[in-house]
Design brief:
CATH topology of one domain in chain A: Substrate Binding Domain Of Dnak, Chain:A, Domain 2
Structural class of chain A: mainly alpha
InterPro entries (chains A, B): AH/BAR_dom_sf, F_BAR_dom, FCH_dom, GMIP/FCHO2-like_FCH
CATH class of one domain in chain A: Mainly Alpha
Strand content of chain A: under 5%
Oligomer: homodimer
Family (chains A, B): Belongs to the FCHO family.
Protein name (chains A, B): F-BAR domain only protein 2-like
CATH architecture of one domain in chain A: Up-down Bundle
CATH superfamily of one domain in chain A: Arfaptin homology (AH) domain/BAR domain
Organism (chains A, B): Carassius auratus
GO cellular component, one term (chains A, B): plasma membrane
Chain lengths: 303, 303
């Protein structure tokens, strides 16, 4: 149970407590719209970040497929794609949350409309005590003036007829004054009663409002935290993949994919021409390559 | 000590092992430039994210300062600003790292230039074994042709003078062939020796290159991880601040800042006009307000 702060603090001789509390309630609608806008902007930022990460992943996949380092780009690409996905997942969650906030915004507007009707009698009581107080003040002034007027006439020796007339006026002013004293007492009772109820109602509305806002923020935090954990996992996996990509494995992979062969050039010895064999077949030596033969195409050049 | 993969796998009868290894080394320059570009792009993404967060913090600080929820925006603003700062700190670290990568890129280019000079004799040995192999093949063919020509002439009963002439040609062709067999043996020895050294050198260069790249990636990961931890702390602080912002404290804060007063309207009773006092002074009742007086200005209206 929360201290009834509103019940305690919105009286005072200026009597605009009701006005302040009513407007405070209405500000709640601005707050919930602003919270919705804030989350939407965050979602937009996360979406842009995610798209940039997807582009960065493409950069990684467009990197040279040549050289010893080439296989590492695949690790970069995969990790960056996962990072993009994490942020896109956050966008999806925030968009869901925005829908919930929108629902609350509408619900809140409806509740405020209902509340406006419910506090209409309080507003009347406020306006009533304001006008009755004013009238009471005027009737009191009139009563004092009429009484002094009668006294003045008495001292100046006015006729009995004039004195009777003035007495009648005093009697009438007294009655009016007394009736306003009575009306004020009623207006005061009514006002206090209504204000007490309404101040409590307004505090209840604010409590409910702040609670709902806190729930939304809690959801927001949860989504952000989940994403943070996922990003941490992607990063951890990246580090692990990098650790598993040893220098030796990269050297080996290159040797396997680009290797030109394991055989060194063989020895070549002088072969005497055996005329009888050579003339038997159709020059069998012709076309048989040397064990090590340069075909003239592979002329190694350093660019 | 890493297995000498390059020494084992870059022979083969096509003899372009040197060429492949040399180009592989040169690809290393592309890789390091690409890594630098990748980190630069990441830094650009982080910078854009940070600037968007700064903008979002401004959105939070521009949110309504009215209503019960208003103080919460300050928590949003501070947290979002800190988030922006975390990402900007990452940008700073990545920019430092890019400078280091640039240094490596330059160093690497210099080393490759030096290596090009150092392997020049290997290139020569490659080109030599290529041309000697070709010449050997040709001289062998010539020797066979000349021998068969002499045999053909003998069978066709050529003059002694012509046979002597043909014999001289065979002798010359034999000498040339033999000399190329010898030259080939030398070229082969030279080539094997040079290629053995150079393949090892190239592997050493690749090992060094991959290690440097891994160091850079390690630095990159470290910066990303540090930022991740900082972001986690900011998020945790935000959650804690939200938890500390109780509904009661917000209600109390509003009551304190917007409260209109604690005093309820007082009772007003009928006051009889005391003529003797009233006429003594100059109408002292006039101007003295009622304990509860509506001044007509505060006319509570619901908008």
């Amino acid at each position: 149970m929360i201290t009834p702060y509103f019940l305690e603090n919105f009286w005072g001789d200026k009597n605009n407590g009701f006005d302040v509390l009513y407007h405070n309630m209405k500000h709640g609608q601005i707050s919930s719209k602003e919270l919705s806008d804030f989350i939407r902007e965050r979602a937009t930022i996360e979406e842009a970040y995610s798209r940039s990460m997807t582009k960065l992943a493409k950069t990684a996949s467009n990197c040279s497929q040549l050289g010893t380092f080439a296989p590492v780009w695949d690790v970069f690409k995969q990790s960056t794609e996962k990072l993009a996905a994490c942020h896109m997942e956050l966008v999806r969650k925030l968009q869901e949350l925005i829908k919930e906030v929108q629902k609350y915004v509408e619900e809140q507007a409806k509740n405020h409309k209902k509340t406006k009707e419910e506090v209409a009698s309080t507003l009347e009581a406020v306006q009533n005590i304001q006008s009755v107080s004013q009238a009471l003040q005027k009737s009191k002034e009139n009563y004092v003036n009429k009484t002094l007027e009668q006294e003045r006439m008495r001292k100046e020796g006015a006729t009995q007829r004039d004195l009777d007339k003035a007495g009648l006026k005093v009697k009438k002013a007294t009655e009016t004054y007394k009736s306003y004293v009575e009306k004020y007492a009623n207006a005061k009772t009514e006002f206090e009663q209504r204000m007490t109820e309404t101040a409590q109602k307004f505090q209840g509305i604010e409590e409910e409002h702040v609670l709902r806002m806190q729930e939304i923020i809690h959801s927001y935090c949860q989504s952000v935290e989940e994403t943070h954990i996922q990003i941490g996992e992607v990063q951890e996996e990246f580090v692990k993949n990098m650790e598993n990509t040893s220098v030796e494995s990269l050297i080996q992979k290159l040797a396997e994919s680009k290797g030109t062969g394991k055989e060194r050039p063989g020895p070549i010895e002088f072969e005497e021409c055996n005329v009888s064999i050579a003339t038997e077949g159709a020059n069998p030596e012709k076309g048989k390559p040397l064990p090590y033969q340069a075909d003239g195409e592979i002329k190694t050049q350093i660019p």
